[in-house]
Amino acid sequence: MALCKRCERWLVAEGDVYCGWCGSELVGYEVALTRDVLFRGRMPLHVQLTVRNLGQTPLEVHNIRADQPWVELPQFTAQTLQPDDPPLSLQVTVADYILPPTGIHEAIIQIIAGDGRAPQSVRLQVVPEPRLQIDMVDVEIVQQFPESDKTQ
Ligand SMILES: [Zn+2]
Fold first, then answer.
1. How far apart are CA 1 and CA 3, in angstroms?
2. Which of 45, 88, 98, 112 has its Cα between 20 and 30 A from that of 17?
3. Where do the structural domains in the chain lie, given as residue ranges?
């Protein structure tokens, strides 16, 4: 148990959602990816997923899952993040060999945490590598003859 950080008057019990004195929200978390767009063909195809407890009470992270088979997540067991803990960090790897060879691919990674609150999700995209195209329409090709050709 700890005092509410905002009003410093109320003892916050585990599982409390709001402070009983000042009404401020005591739970909350943030989910982020270090990058949400990956270019295919540029290795490595992985990013870090972080879950940060923004609340004043312990946060239980129950599960992390993805809706696409090409998103590889490490084996995850439920864990608890204390309010001042460093963020939970997991490596998300794109299994390139499963992806169809062309096109833009999108996956939703969902984090189930807290007590029955709506899961949070992040979106990860894998896109073709941008290609440089040179427009040749206005280019004039100039041929230069060696000096000796002019005298013939
Ligand atoms: Zn308070």
1. 7
2. 88
3. 26-131
